[in-house]
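User: Design a sequence. Structure:
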C-alpha cells in the first residue's frame, strides 16, 4: 500500500471528487481527515462508508477570513503530524460583466477566498508542520481554466485557479530541498454534480473534448494518490492536465 503511514487532510471531501480522492487514499493505506463546507451529513456518510481510516471530519466555510488556519488547527488536533494536504475544495459562482457591481464583487471575493486564499493559507500552515517533521506533500486541484482561461462569465474562477497554479510552482521551487513536494492537477470537466447534466451545456462540454467524455472522479483520485506516494519526487512543481485533450500545451 503506497500511502501507508500517511495522514492526509483533504478539503471538499464530503462528496464528488473529494470523496473519490479520500476513497483512493484509504484504499492505498492512508489515514484521512475529511473537510466539508456545509454538508456535514454527506461528510459523515462518506466517513462511515470508508471506515476507521477516516480519523475525523472538520467543517469550515472557506469563504471566511482565516478559515484555512482554523481548519488546519482543528485537523491537527485530530492527528499530528499531518503528512500531506490535498486542496480540492472549489466553487465556481459566475462573475458576469453585466449585472450589479455588488454581485460581481461578491463573486470575485468568494472565488478568490475558496479557490486561492484558503489553499494558500492551508499550505502555509502545512509547510510549518512539514518543516518540523522532515517533509510532506501538497497536491492542489486547480483547473484547465487556470491555464487557458474560461468563458466570459467565469473570469474570477479562472483567475483564482491561475493563481493557485503559480503558488504551487513557487512553493515547489522554494521547498524541494526541504523534502516538501508540491504538485497541481488541472482537470477539465469532471463527471460530478458540478458538471452539466444535459442540454446545450453538456453538448458543448463533450464537443470540445476529443476523448468524447468527461473525466471520471476516480481518474483524478488515482493520479492524486500517485503524487502523494512519493514515487516521482522529481515531478514536484509540475501541473498534470486531465482534460481529455481539450487543452494541450
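Assistant: Done.
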Amino acid at each position: 500500500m503506497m500511502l501507508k503511514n500517511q495522514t492526509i487532510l483533504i478539503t471538499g471531501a464530503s462528496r464528488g471528487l473529494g470523496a473519490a480522492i479520500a476513497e483512493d487514499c484509504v484504499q492505498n493505506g492512508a489515514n484521512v481527515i475529511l473537510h466539508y463546507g456545509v454538508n456535514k451529513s454527506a461528510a459523515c456518510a462518506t466517513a462511515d462508508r470508508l471506515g476507521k481510516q477516516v480519523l475525523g471530519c472538520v467543517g469550515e466555510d472557506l469563504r471566511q477570513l482565516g478559515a484555512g488556519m482554523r481548519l488546519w488547527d482543528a485537523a491537527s488536533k485530530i492527528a499530528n503530524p499531518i503528512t500531506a494536504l490535498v486542496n480540492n475544495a472549489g466553487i465556481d459562482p459566475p462573475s458576469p460583466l453585466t449585472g450589479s457591481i455588488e454581485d460581481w464583487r461578491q463573486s470575485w471575493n468568494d472565488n478568490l477566498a475558496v479557490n486561492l486564499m484558503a489553499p494558500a493559507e492551508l499550505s502555509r500552515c502545512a509547510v510549518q508542520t512539514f518543516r518540523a517533521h522532515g517533509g510532506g506533500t501538497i497536491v492542489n486541484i486547480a483547473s484547465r481554466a487556470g491555464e487557458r482561461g474560461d468563458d466570459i462569465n467565469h473570469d474570477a474562477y479562472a483567475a483564482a485557479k491561475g493563481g493557485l497554479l503559480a503558488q504551487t510552482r513557487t512553493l515547489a521551487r522554494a521547498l524541494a530541498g526541504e523534502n516538501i513536494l508540491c504538485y497541481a492537477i488541472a482537470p477539465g470537466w469532471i463527471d460530478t454534480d458540478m458538471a452539466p447534466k444535459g442540454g446545450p451545456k453538456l453538448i458543448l462540454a463533450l464537443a470540445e473534448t476529443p476523448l468524447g467524455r468527461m473525466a471520471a472522479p476516480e481518474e483524478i483520485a488515482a493520479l492524486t494518490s500517485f503524487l502523494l506516494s512519493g514515487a516521482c519526487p522529481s515531478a514536484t512543481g509540475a501541473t498534470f492536465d486531465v482534460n481529455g485533450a481539450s487543452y494541450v500545451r
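The chain is about 45% helix and 15% strand. The mean pLDDT is 97.
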